[in-house]
């Protein structure tokens, strides 16, 4: 036999042996568990955001500006209250976040109002972490808008 044929046979045997041994080795190894990050967490309640040197109407306009930058819809419910809604729809799921933003010429407060698709549990006070992320983004944008760091 030629050297080339012998090399091919040896490689073939090694590959077959490796394929046969792989499942056996996998059975001998301890199982590996992967911990998933918990997706539910306490509903985020941002601290009040300070506003200085602005009228109530200027604050209202600033809030709406910050919301529109991220694609939120803003509806004035009454003087001092804006209800903001964000909807993210895909083929698989539809998510809806609704928050109340109470404001005056001195401060702004963000509160949970309602949601759809976030596994909100009122009794436990928990919600999907994505909702909290959206609220934190609104909070960050409001702080930037009103220079409250």
What's the layout of helices and strands?
Blueprint: H1 3-28, E1 40-42, E2 49-50, H2 56-69, E3 73-78, E4 81-89, E5 94-103, E6 107-116, E7 126-128, H3 129-146
Antiparallel strand pairs: 1-7, 2-6, 3-4, 4-5, 5-6
Helix pairs in contact: 2-3
Question: How would you describe what is shown here?
Answer:
With 149 residues, the chain is α+β, with helices and mostly antiparallel strands. It has one domain: Alpha-D-Glucose-1,6-Bisphosphate, Chain A, domain 4, CATH 3.30.530. It contains three helices and seven strands. It has helices at 3-28, 56-69, 129-146, and strands spanning 40-42, 49-50, 73-78, 81-89, 94-103, 107-116, 126-128. It has a five-stranded antiparallel beta sheet, covered by helices on one side. The longest helix is centred in the first third of the chain and has 26 residues, at 3-28. The chain starts with a helix and ends with a helix.
Note the main attributes of this structure:
149 residues, alpha+beta, Alpha-D-Glucose-1,6-Bisphosphate, Chain A, domain 4, five-stranded antiparallel beta sheet, 3 helices, 7 strands
Could you spell the SSE succession in H and E letters? Answer: HEEHEEEEEH
- The second-level CATH architecture is 2-Layer Sandwich
CATH class: Alpha Beta
Note the overall shape.
elongated
């Amino acid at each position: 036999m030629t050297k080339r044929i012998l090399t091919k046979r040896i490689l073939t045997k090694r590959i077959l042996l490796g394929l046969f041994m792989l499942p056996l080795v996998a059975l001998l190894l301890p199982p590996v568990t992967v911990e998933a990050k918990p997706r539910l967490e306490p509903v985020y309640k941002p601290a009040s955001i300070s506003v200085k040197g602005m009228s109530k109407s200027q604050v209202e306009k600033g809030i709406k500006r910050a919301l529109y930058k991220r694609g939120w819809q803003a509806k004035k419910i009454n003087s001092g209250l804006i209800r903001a809604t964000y909807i993210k729809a895909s083929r698989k799921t539809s998510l809806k976040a609704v928050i109340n933003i109470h404001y005056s010429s001195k401060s702004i407060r963000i509160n949970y109002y309602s949601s759809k698709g976030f596994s909100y549990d009122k009794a436990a006070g928990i919600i999907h972490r994505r909702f909290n992320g959206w609220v934190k983004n609104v909070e960050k944008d409001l702080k930037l808008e009103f220079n409250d760091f």
